[in-house]
Amino acid sequence: MQHPKVTVLGSGSLFFGRQAIWQMIHSPHLRTGTLALVDTDEQRMEKMARLAEKVVAHTGVPLKIEAAANRREVMKDSDFVILSFADRSAEFRGIDCEVSARHGIRMCSGDTIGPGGIFRTLREFPEIMKVCQDVRALCPRAWVMNYINPTAAMGAGIRKYFPDLRSFALCDGPHMPHFKRYYAIRAGIIKRDEQLTPEVDKKFDMRVVGVNHFTWMIKAEYEGRNVMPKIAEWLRRQAAPETLGGDEGAKALHNEKVAWQLYQLFGCVPTCVGHTKEYVRFWQGLGKAEELIPPLSIWQAAPRYKRHDEMWKQVDGFLNGAIPIDSYMTTFKPDHATDIVENIVGRLGKTFYLNTANAGALTNMDDGDYLELACSIDDGGIKTHPIGEMPRCLRGLVTQVLDAHMAAVEAAVSCRRDDLLRAMLIDPIVSSIADANAIIDELLAAERDALPAKWFGS
Fold first, then answer.
1. What angle do CA 67, 71, 77 make, to 5 degrees?
2. Which residue of 21, 270, 276, 307 has the smallest Cβ count within 10 Å?
3. Among candidates 444, 442, 409, 441, which has minimal Cα distance to 423?
4. How many Cα neighbours within 13 Å face the side chain of 39?
5. Looking at residue 354, what is its pLDDT?
6. What is the 3-class SS of 56-68, one letter each residue?
7. Distance (Å, rounded) from C-alpha 134 to C-alpha 155?
8. Is the CB of residue 7 less than 8 Å from the CB of residue 74?
9. Residue 223: which region, alpha, beta or left (left: phi > 0; alpha: psi -120 to 50)?
10. Cα 432 to the chain's mean position, in Å?
11. What are phi and psi of 69, to 5 degrees?
């Protein structure tokens, strides 16, 4: 694979499109290949293509840029197909959170679990199935890399309905080696201004596993010594009444307190706490006694729109010359997906956290369970790294999340109301049959134009 072709579906996604361009241009393994940018929003697609062409011209690399609103025009012979699209994600995410809150379900993110995750699956998975059919026809040996939330549900759905395709799912959070370095600093193994050297990496045995956004550190040893208590102590010291961050206010609120309390309860450190706190019922505000931590705040769409506007202004600045194009090369950083592409093409032998089949890594869960865990990957396939046992106190919670995701996927395929209600009732934060039915009624009506007509009897 000397000249890889990477097709990004949803290249107008500002969280992934710009970084994909950066990585394709930077990497000596990728810059002689082709980057195909696809987005159904032609204006955004054209802007990203112009940006890519401008950076290519500035750097002088031989990377070929293709762009299209219709993916079938550019997908042929792709080696990698990255899925990063969404239909009016912030708009519907806001609706999902507002409607759910009126019926007693609090979501601080609303894109992976609860009614928000379920309805996002209903909106996006039918299109993912169409993409996979196109991959079968146009580039059947391509790696299909899903970045669309709920990424574990989408990835597991692809694996179930398209087992012949090479696929896995991703999240930008556990991006190695930064992910492991983050915890090495908190364990006191290295200082904040130090990098994770290969020697330290080898001595630091960190094992993180679970379902995407619901992952747990079940082991952390350095030179054979347990350092998880040190990581937990860092959380305890950092715990504060409020920790806000940009447009992620609801996701970032009370995270250290939540993480510390979960560690005290389960003996493991949650590694994606801004989402994990939404996967459990403890902060839904249903208890009668006063809690140490207040109920979850509700995710708001308006700050995300503001962030999107700022990002597009930056893109416009690069295009009109208001921002020097040479600064592009120092503004961005590697993307998780294209890091993995580089690893496969360059045969670099790196470790990544992927969402894929367990395949024996967790000895007390099924081989087919779709988990986020450390893996090696090359063009021959994926190899999960051995982990051991999932603590019993967490295994049941993880299994429920997996079952909830698959129930949502099955509802997205069948478009049957009874399957949808069943998915809602399997979900870990839905507590009432009546509220579940009411949420279904309201969201089906509010999101009708983004859902398959089959839901409405046509």
1. 90
2. 307
3. 409
4. 22
5. 98
6. HHHHCCCCEEEEE
7. 17
8. yes
9. left
10. 28
11. -85, -25
- How confident is the model at residue 98, as a pLDDT? 96
Strand partners, 269: 217
- pLDDT confidence of residue 248: 56
Q: What percent of the chain has pLDDT over 70?
A: 97
Question: What is residue 80's three-state secondary structure?
Answer: strand
The DSSP letter of residue 263 is H
- Measured in residues, the chain has a length of 458
Question: What pLDDT sits at residue 15?
Answer: 67
Query: H-helix or E-strand containing 356?
Result: strand 351-357
26 phi, psi to nearest 5 deg = -70, -40
Sign, CA torsion 276/280/282/283: positive
CA gap 269, 208 in Å, rounded: 9
Element (H, E) at 420: helix 417-426
Q: Collect the ranges in the chain with pLDDT lower than 70.
A: 14-15, 240-248, 458
- Which pairs count as long-range contacts for 356-362, CB under 8 Å and 24+ apart, including other chains? 356/155, 356/159, 356/168, 356/169, 356/382, 356/384, 357/159, 357/384, 358/384, 359/383, 359/384, 360/384, 360/386, 361/209, 361/385, 361/386, 361/387, 362/209, 362/387, 362/388, 362/389, 362/390
- Encode pLDDT of 300-328 as tens digits: 888 888 888 888 899 899 999 999 998 88
| pLDDT at 290 (0 to 100) | 87
Structure tokens at 194: 């130090």
pTM here?
0.94
> How many beta carbons lie within 10 A of that of residue 86, not counting itself?
20
Q: Which two tokens stand for residue 442?
A: 């309201």
Helices (H) and strands (E) in the chain, counts: 17, 13
